[in-house]
Amino acid sequence: MIAIYTVWYNFIKMHKTLKMTPPMAAGVSQTLWSMEDLFEKMDAVAPKPGKRGPYKKKVA
Q1: Biggest alpha carbon–alpha carbon distance for the chain
Q2: What's the pTM value of the predicted model, to 2 decimals?
Q3: Which of 11, 14, 27, 32 is most buried per CB count within 10 Å?
């Protein structure tokens, strides 16, 4: 949760003193991100769920 907040604070939130986001000021990013952009990037790197194997039978 802290990582999502950090990305929001740095890439999505406009800073009043900079009049842009810190990555835009540093030249890392050219555009202002939205929450949708953040979630798309998270979904792109998330591992795809694999096929589940058979369950082991309980031994009594």
Answers
A1: 67
A2: 0.65
A3: 11
